[in-house]
C-alpha cells in the first residue's frame, strides 16, 4: 500500500496530487508548493508520510490510516487502497491456483501419453503375434493335449487288444493310422505351447512385460487424475482474503493540526527568540558602554 506501484495506480487520475497539492492548503503543509521538478519522487516521499500501515502479527490484523486535508480525500484514498489490496490478493490467488493446476495438468498429460503408448504397444504385439493372452491360451492348449493323449492311449489299448486276439482284424490299420494322426496332432499342439520361437512360452515373457508396462501406465494415469483433483481442492482451500473488519470512515472532526499545541509551541519559541535577542542587545549595549 505504500509502494510506488500502489501510488502510481492511486494517482492515475491525479487524486493524490490534487488532494495534497491543493492551493487551499497552507504553503507550509502543501505538496510541492513551488512547483519544482522531480515531482514523482517527491510525491512518493510525501505520500509515505501521509499513509501508514501497521500489522499485528498476533491477530493478523492490518490497520490502514490515511491523513489528508479533507475528510473526503482521506476516505477516497483509503477506499481505493483497500480495493487495490483486494485486487492484488485476488491476482496472487489466481496465479498460485493457475500454477498448481497447470502443473497437475502437465502431469496428467504425460500420464495419458504414457498410457496410450503402452496400450498401443500391447495391441500391436497381440495383432502381430496373433495372441490375446499367452498364459490363458497355453492353458487351453495343454488341456487339448491332455485330451489328445487320453484318446491316443485309448486307441493304442484297443489296437493292442485287437492284435492279441484278432490279428487279421480289418480295424487294425485304421487304428494304426489313428494313433499316428493323434501323435502328430499332439506334437503340433506341444510345439505351439513350447519348443520354438513362436510358441506361447516364448511370447509370454514379452507379452507380460508389455502388459506390466500398460498396467503401470494405467495406475500412473489414475494417480495423475487424483492429483489433479487434489490440486483443485487445495487451490480452493489455500486462498487468501482481504476481510474488511472496519470499513473506511470519514472523521467527524479534524485531528490535525493540533492548534493548542501549535499556539503553545509558537509562544515558547517566541519567548526563546525574544530572550536570546534581549541578551544580545544587552550585551551590545554593555560592550559600547
Structural description of this entry:
Strand 1 and strand 2 (61-66) form a beta hairpin. Helix 4 packs antiparallel against helix 7. The mean pLDDT is 81. By secondary structure, the protein is mainly alpha-helical. It is built from eight helices and two strands. The two termini are 65 Å apart.
Tell me the layout of helices and strands.
Layout: H1 4-10, H2 15-20, H3 39-50, E1 51-56, E2 61-66, H4 71-129, H5 134-165, H6 171-193, H7 200-237, H8 259-288
Helix pairs in contact: 4-7, 5-6, 5-7
Summarize the structure.
With 289 residues, this protein is mainly alpha-helical. The chain has helices at residues 4-10, 15-20, 39-50, 71-129, 134-165, 171-193, 200-237, 259-288; strands spanning 51-56, 61-66.
Number of domains: 2
Low-confidence stretches: none
Strand order of the largest sheet: 1-2
Give the percentage of residues in beta strands: under 5%
Order of helices and strands: HHHEEHHHHH
* Largest pleated sheet: 2 strands, antiparallel
Helical proportion? over 70%
Give the count of helical stretches.
8
Gap between N and C termini: 65 Å
The value of Rg in angstroms is: 48 Å
Q: Outline, from the CA principal axes? A: rod-shaped
Number of strand elements: 2
Q: What structural class do you assign from the helix and strand content?
A: mainly alpha
Mean pLDDT: 81
Amino acid at each position: 500500500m505504500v509502494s510506488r506501484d500502489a501510488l502510481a495506480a492511486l494517482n492515475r487520475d491525479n487524486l493524490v496530487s490534487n488532494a495534497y497539492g491543493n492551493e487551499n492548503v497552507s504553503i507550509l503543509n502543501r505538496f510541492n508548493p513551488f512547483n519544482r521538478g522531480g515531482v514523482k519522487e517527491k510525491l512518493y516521499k510525501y505520500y509515505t508520510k501521509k499513509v501508514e500501515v501497521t500489522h499485528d502479527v498476533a491477530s493478523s490484523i492490518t490497520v490502514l490510516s490515511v491523513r489528508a486535508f479533507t475528510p473526503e480525500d482521506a476516505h477516497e484514498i483509503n477506499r481505493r487502497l483497500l480495493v487495490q489490496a483486494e485486487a492484488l490478493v485476488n491476482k496472487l490467488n489466481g496465479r498460485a491456483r493457475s500454477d498448481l493446476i497447470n502443473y497437475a495438468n502437465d502431469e496428467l498429460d504425460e500420464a495419458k501419453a504414457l498410457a496410450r503408448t503402452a496400450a498401443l504397444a500391447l495391441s500391436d504385439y497381440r495383432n502381430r503375434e496373433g495372441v490375446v493372452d499367452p498364459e490363458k491360451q497355453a492353458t487351453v492348449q495343454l488341456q487339448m493335449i491332455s485330451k489328445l493323449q487320453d484318446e491316443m492311449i485309448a486307441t493304442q489299448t484297443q489296437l493292442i487288444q485287437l492284435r492279441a486276439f484278432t490279428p487279421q482284424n480289418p480295424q487294425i490299420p485304421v487304428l494304426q493310422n489313428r494313433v499316428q494322426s493323434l501323435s502328430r496332432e499332439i506334437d503340433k499342439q506341444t510345439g505351439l505351447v513350447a519348443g520354438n520361437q513362436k510358441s506361447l512360452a516364448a511370447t509370454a515373457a514379452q507379452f507380460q512385460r508389455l502388459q506390466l508396462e500398460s498396467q503401470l501406465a494405467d495406475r500412473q494415469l489414475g494417480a495423475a487424475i487424483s492429483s489433479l483433483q487434489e490440486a483443485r481442492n487445495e487451490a480452493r482451500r489455500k486462498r487468501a482474503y482481504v476481510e474488511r473488519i472496519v470499513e473506511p470512515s470519514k472523521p467527524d472532526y479534524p485531528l490535525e493540526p493540533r492548534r493548542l499545541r501549535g499556539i503553545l509551541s509558537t509562544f515558547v519559541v517566541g519567548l526563546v527568540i525574544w530572550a536570546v535577542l534581549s541578551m544580545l542587545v544587552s550585551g551590545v549595549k554593555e560592550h559600547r558602554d
